[in-house]
Amino acid sequence: MYVQIITFRLDGLSPAEFAEVNAQVATQYGGVPGLVSKIFLADPDDDHAYGGVYLWESRTDVERYLREGLAQILVTDPRFVDLHTRTMAVLAAPTSITGGPVADLVARPAA
After folding, report:
1. For the segment 47-66, what is each residue's pLDDT rounded down to a tens digit?
2. What is the rounded distance in angstroms from the CA atom of residue 9 to the CA atom of residue 51?
3. In a domain, 110, yes or no
């Protein structure tokens, strides 16, 4: 299991307009292969800083999403700037202790 964190800033897109974009694409995430969940983020102290935390089944799923998935909206639209992404493996054993959604992974290492 992998966690991906994407952060970016808005340039030429208001927070209200961005909320409309989110409303349009949020329902599409249910069909993304390998995506366990997505959390949408906003910085309350900076109305142009946003991001997402994604929980993926595999690294291959992350790579496919970046290459051909909904991430292309962020990559190709010039109103999304300072785009950063980082992907890390989930440490299943300690995460299960703190209540993370990885109970079925404790017996096996990250892929």
Report:
1. 899 999 999 999 999 999 99
2. 8
3. no
